[in-house]
Every structure is written in structure tokens, then in C-alpha cells.
Amino acid sequence: MAKVKIDNKLVAAVRIRGRVNVRQSIAETMNRLNLKRVNSLSLIYGTKSNVGMINKCKDFITFGEIDRKVLERLLESKGIKVEKDNMDKLMNGAVRAADAGIRLPMGMKPPKRGYKDIKRSFVDKGDLGYRGVEINALIERMI
């Protein structure tokens, strides 16, 4: 699979697969991304180092660019209030999620109607890896 272009965008990453038979280096990378449990969601800004970590874990997570409306709905469902100014800065990468008052990772419910296949990539009609703006539909099902 080719490298994904998510530079300078706010990315939502959701862990789909568990801890069994995960290489230590990948497990450590997922811990650094705050993806410690299945169905946990983390907001990551697309810097060069973060994109490298996401690509390393692509066989255990799904990720894509999150829309502002979906992010606002997600935060509202979790009872988190973020000012409009901080939301703009968060979407542009000027402020980290922790500085905006968002505690990560967010524990999510399993998606309604379940996953398609947790062992195949999104391109091959599964759920793993890069899914672009389709991550918003998955998050909507998990709220």
C-alpha cells in the first residue's frame, strides 16, 4: 500500500484489533499514539513523525481526516465543551488536544452493525488502514 497523504490535517485514529500477537515495536507505537485498547479513539495532527507512526500501525488501526461537524458531535457526546477559537486552532494544528481540554484516548462503543472485516484493509472491503473521510461515518456509528 502506498504512503498516505495526511500531512497537516487533524486525523482520527481508532484501534480495531487487540493485543494478542502484536510485535513489541508496534505495541509501543500504539501506546505512543494513545491507542491502548480496542475501540479507543485518538486525535492526532498529521506531522511527519505522527504520519510515520500511523503508517507503522496501519494493520491494527483505522484512520482518516475528521470533519469539524463530526468532531463537535463527538465532543458533545462525551460532555466536552471546547470554545470556537480553540476548535479552530485544534483543526489547524496550532493547539494540541490536551491543551484544548480534550482527554485522550476516548473510549468508544463498538460501531452499530459491527465491523466488516478486521483482518483486511479498507481498500479490500475490510476495516483496517486509511479510509479518508469515511472515518466520519465510522465515528458516527460509534457515538
Q: What is the CATH topology classification name?
A: Ribosomal Protein L30, Chain: A
Largest sheet at a glance?
A: 5 strands, mixed
By CATH reckoning, the class would read Alpha Beta
Give me the side-by-side strand order of the main sheet. Answer: 4-2-1-3-5
In helices, the fraction of residues equals 25-40%
**CA distance, first residue to last residue:** 29 Å
CATH architecture: 2-Layer Sandwich
Return the average pLDDT rounded to an integer: 92
Rg, rounded, reads 14 Å
**Which geometry do the CA atoms define?**
globular
CATH H-level superfamily title = Ribosomal protein L30/L7
Beta-strand content: 5-15%
Q: Give the helix/strand class.
A: alpha+beta
The H/E string reads EHEHEHHEEH
Features:
143 residues; alpha+beta; Ribosomal Protein L30, Chain: A; globular
Structure explained in plain terms:
This protein has 143 residues and is an alpha+beta fold. It has one domain: 2-Layer Sandwich (Ribosomal Protein L30, Chain: A), CATH 3.30.1390. It is built from five helices and five strands; from the N terminus they run E-H-E-H-E-H-H-E-E-H. It has a five-stranded mixed sheet. It is globular. The model has no long low-confidence stretch (mean pLDDT 92).
Brief account:
This protein has 143 residues and is of the alpha+beta class. 31% of the residues lie in helices and 15% in strands.
Break the fold down into its secondary structure elements and pairings.
Layout: E1 10-15, H1 24-32, E2 40-45, H2 48-56, E3 61-65, H3 68-77, H4 84-92, E4 106-107, E5 129-130, H5 135-142
Parallel strand pairs: 3-5
Antiparallel strand pairs: 1-2, 1-3, 2-4
